[in-house]
Write a structure and sequence with these properties.
Layout (H helix, E strand, L loop, with lengths): L10 E2 L2 E2 L16 H6 L3 H7 L12 H13 L3 H9 L8 H13 L3 H13 L8 H14 L3 H14 L4 H9 L5 H8 L5 H17 L3 H10 L3 H10 L3 H12 L6 H13 L5 H13 L3 H14 L4 H13 L3 H14 L2 H17 L3 H14 L4 H16 L3 H14 L4 H16 L3 H14 L8 H12 L3 H13 L4 H10 L21 H13 L3 H13 L5 H13 L3 H15 L3 H7 L5 H11 L3 H12 L19 H10 L13 H17 L5 H10 L1 H7 L8 H7 L3 H21 L18
């Protein structure tokens, strides 16, 4: 079989990173604590910093400031307070006083925070850059302390110091204004879409307080605030309308904040929730990794609808999430007792899925075989057979896998699962060297997939097979896929296979912004200022305001995306990148929004230390956490690169890091230190090519080590398609596509770095 698509190694100087040879990366320079702090590597800085003298000995002010900066970066605010209390003159040194005041604020010691920020603002030695920070945070402290008049005056002073974002301070000041008319006047000068929306929402809140519900409703409708609309409708006596609106939010993505807010709204205002509502609330809590609350609401639903098979199946799935096979079995038994013949196959599929998750393969196999006999042609049974085929694939039981596919073709010819089996059989034929039969099988799959349930994969493979045979129609088909979905795995691979890199970014010059339009530099600066002040909510609202503004120029969107990414607001940067793509195409500015690079200095430093491409690490983090340091997955993985506590402990022991503290996984540079080490090991120790290393990061290296024995392991496309875990297949596709886009967007700016070369193509 012709192997034109064998993977090339990404170069690390002269030695390949993707294989077992020792990488030729120069060792990173040893850095002192100050340099590490500059890079945002707080955990590393703590290890490099001079030891503090034992209490009660005083701490020299310079050493105290160094340790306070480190511990502030680690968010150990009690330690910051303790260190600075031991330092003589800390209340007269601006750097120390800023850290001390911030610690007081974070520890909810607002009186001390206000006093220290006030002193900081008045110190002659305080720099022009720090004084506005002190003014703003003193105003916020006065607000919390309830000193209304002083807070209002403080906000005015802050606005004078930072005129660029004075409109945001006006909104804060308006909340303190007793005169509603004056409050409305103070927010009327909001300069940007995000500030105008926040000002409008303030106006709506004041109207609600004044009893002007119709006026508030008009504002909420203008901005599409569904839950706020429901609250007003409820207050106006339109209880049924409000309930239906909240119900609709429950049916949306349960991971979105609106879904939880809708659940709380219903629970607070209605004495008795419907079965449907209780189930919706349970799904929200399940998505939020709160199984106890999810089970409580499901149980309440079952008290009123004990015969609901769907509810019992949801409860079984919940117990399966918690690895409680016994409880899942009990729930499945209850579902089975209540199921009529039409629902029997659904229960069977659920039971097979639960057993598979628990790795009870023999029982799952017996159950599937029985269902095939008793329920011939049933689509749910066909799905159960496909689940078992996934198991066979995962454990390299090729003959058993093929038997299940042929079983599906014979007994379930019309099922969607069977078309998936046809596609996989086509890939098997290709791996065996029979490209002609593979092409015929894939063509049959496409003909049967009239509603495109299988997505782009069959069309991509049909085009690739044509291209391999020298058919120009294959190139045309690949170019069409690349044009239709340029950000997807198949779009990226289609461009790579055709060698079509011309105009990958839109090559036309963008029209300059209209005269009088908002300057891009100001859009960037406003987000930067708000983020640096710690006004996270306002900074995110500022960024999202531009994303929603259909009149914003592409240049403003690029600038806002860059500022959001630099501030660590990856989700907002991606939204801005999406908006920019719609308006300007896939320009470099849009691509950098879609592929943000927060914590860049930390990622580059860890990549250099472990001889990794920082753009590969960025692509993984984008998918794992959206660069969120305190992210926690449903499985319990933590931090920016999503490390499980057990894995973290094992890696820490291997790296001789002690003492172990699972909370360190929320520290970006520590988390990345472990994540980068794990990824680098896949290259150095396991000799994995990059696509397999990505798979291992998601599925574990032991699984991928088994998979390397597959005959298709040397063909990246074939390997990715045949990965035995659906979640991992999706993961590899997304990360690989993101990786290539990161390379397009940032390779030039990484030229000359000590990390591996990033411009070399992954595939020829």
């Amino acid at each position: 079989m012709r192997r034109s698509w064998l993977v090339l190694a990404v170069a690390c100087a002269a030695a390949p990173v993707l294989f077992a040879q020792a990488p030729a990366c120069p060792p990173p320079p040893a850095l002192g604590a100050e340099s590490l702090l500059t890079l945002g590597r707080f955990w590393h800085a703590e290890r490099a910093a001079p030891v503090l003298p034992r209490a009660p000995r005083p701490v020299p002010i310079g050493l105290a400031v160094l340790h306070a900066r480190i511990r502030a970066g680690l968010e150990r605010w009690e330690d910051v307070d303790e260190v600075l209390r031991r330092a003589r003159g800390a209340d007269s040194v601006p750097d120390a006083l800023l850290l001390w005041a911030t610690a007081s604020e974070r520890l909810d010691n607002w009186a001390a925070a206000e006093a220290r920020f006030r002193r900081l603002a008045d110190l002659p030695a305080t720099s022009a850059a720090v004084r506005p920070v002190a003014l703003v945070h003193r105003a916020a402290a006065l607000e919390v302390l309830g000193r209304r008049d002083s807070a209002e005056a403080a906000w005015r002073r802050a606005a004078q110091a930072l005129p660029e974002i004075a409109d945001w301070f006006a909104i804060r000041r308006a909340k303190l204004e007793r005169d509603t008319a004056l409050a409305f006047v103070s927010v009327s000068a909001a300069r940007t879409p995000g500030a105008r929306q926040r000002a409008a929402l303030f106006v709506a809140q004041r109207r609600v307080m004044a009893g002007n519900l119709a006026g508030a409703l008009e504002v909420y409708r203008r901005y599409g605030r569904s839950l706020d609309i429901a609250r007003v409708e409820w207050a106006m006596g339109q209880r049924r309308t409000a309930r239906l609106r909240a119900d609709s939010l429950l049916l949306q993505d349960p991971t979105k904040p609106q879904a939880l807010l809708a659940a709380n709204f219903l629970a607070e205002r209605y004495d008795s929730l419907t079965v449907r509502e209780l189930a919706g609330v349970a799904r929200v809590y399940r998505a939020l990794n709160d199984p106890s609350n999810a089970e409580r609401h499901l149980r309440r639903a079952l008290q009123r609808a004990d015969t609901s098979v769907a509810l019992w199946l949801e409860l079984a799935a919940l117990h399966s999430d918690r690895k409680d096979l016994r409880a899942a079995r009990v729930a499945l038994d209850s579902a089975e007792r209540r199921a009529r013949r039409r629902a029997a196959s659904l229960v069977t599929l659920a039971r097979v899925t639960v057993l598979a998750a628990a790795k009870e393969w023999d029982e799952a196999d017996t159950l599937t075989a029985r269902a095939v006999r008793l329920l011939p042609g049933d689509s749910n049974v066909a799905k159960a057979v496909l689940v078992m085929a996934e198991h066979d694939r995962a454990y390299a039981q090729a003959a058993a896998e093929l038997r299940r596919y042929w079983l599906l073709l014979r007994r379930f010819p019309a099922a969607t699962a069977t078309n998936t089996a046809r596609f996989r059989l086509g890939l098997v034929l290709y791996a065996q060297g029979d490209a002609d039969s593979a092409a015929a099988a894939v063509a049959d799959v496409i003909a049967r997939d009239s509603t495109n349930l299988l997505g782009t994969a069959p069309r991509f493979w049909a085009a690739r097979l044509r291209l391999e045979r020298g058919d120009s129609a294959g190139r045309v088909a690949l170019q069409r896929i690349a044009a239709q979905e340029p950000l997807s795995y198949y779009g990226v691979r289609a461009r790579e296979l055709t060698g079509d890199t011309v105009a990958f970014f839109v090559d036309t010059a963008l029209a300059p912004p209209r005269p009088g339009s908002f300057p891009p530099a100001r859009a960037r600066e406003r987000i930067r200022l708000l983020a640096n002040l710690g006004f996270e909510s306002e900074a995110r609202a500022e960024a999202l305001g531009w994303a929603a503004d259909t009149t914003a120029s592409p240049q403003v969107l690029f600038a806002a995306a860059a500022a959001a990414g630099a501030a660590g607001f990856a989700r907002e940067a991606i939204r801005l990148g999406e908006a920019a793509q719609v308006r300007a195409g896939l320009t470099a500015g849009a691509a950098r929004g879609l592929m943000p690079f927060p914590y860049r200095s930390v990622i580059e430093a860890e990549s250099a230390e472990h001889c990794l491409d920082p753009l590969l690490l960025a692509a993984i983090i984008r998918q794992e956490s959206r660069f969120t340091p305190r992210a926690v997955s449903r499985a319990g993985a933590r931090g920016i690169s999503q490390v499980m506590p057990a894995t973290g402990r094992e890696l820490a022991q291997r790296l001789r890091i002690a003492p172990w503290d699972a909370d360190l996984l929320f520290v970006p540079d520590f988390n990345l230190h472990l994540g980068a080490h794990f990824l680098a090991d896949r290259f150095r120790v396991d000799s994995f090519p990059v696509y397999a290393a990505i798979a291992a990061y998601n599925a574990g290296f032991q699984r991928v080590d088994r998979w390397r024995r597959w005959p298709e392991f040397g063909d990246p496309d074939l390997f990715v398609e045949r990965v035995a875990i659906p979640e991992t297949r999706t993961y590899v596709r997304i990360v690989y596509a993101s990786y290539q886009w990161y390379r397009r967007a940032y390779a030039d700016s990484l030229a000359g770095a000590s990390s591996p070369a990033v411009a070399a193509p992954l595939y020829p």
